[in-house]
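User: quick one, fold this
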Amino acid sequence: MHFKLFILVMATVWVLGGCAGMSETQRGTAQGSAIGAGTGALIGAIAGKGKGAAIGAAAGAGVGAAAGYLWSKKMEEQKKQMEEATAGTDVQVTQTEDNRLKLEIPSDISFDTNHAEIKPNMQPVLDSFANSLMNNPNAMVTIIGHTDNSGSDAINNPLSVNRAASTRDYLVSRGVALERISIDGRGSYEPVASNDTPENRAKNRRVEIFVFEL
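Assistant:
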């Protein structure tokens, strides 16, 4: 039994380390499921006795994998608050498969082309978001910047990071602790639409904000 648990833990570590090339949502789902599976297996093993231990571990792993991150009452309250704050805009507010709150902010209210300064239309959304984070001190944030495929990687990659950094800095200026926020930029490598029209390129110029509780 201990050997089986060892194999499961090693598989979990492998999943956590093998997420390169995935989108942020796919990576979060894999990592959340792996963490949940490992935790669930341990709980199942402890709860199981004798011959039932392996069955308990397998059942615990299944429950853990399905859970991913924690989706608490405060997370649900944050989702409702952001849905209200973004009503009438093109900002998409969703709950991901691995129980993260996701805000997808398109370019028409976030950033001008080739710029990383936040537009005035984006500020009320971020103000409400900062307030929701202050009401949920256990929540952590990941901000991902994206561009379309216009221009070179030498331009797009730092631009996507700078957009994420501008979003982070604005939240910090509204009282959110810096250590709660991580940022990344994906340049043009994770489009949500083909880059064949101006409208589709605008969809790809975006910021994605993920909120999660461990």
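User: anything notable?
Assistant: Residues 65 and 73 are 20 Å apart (CA to CA).
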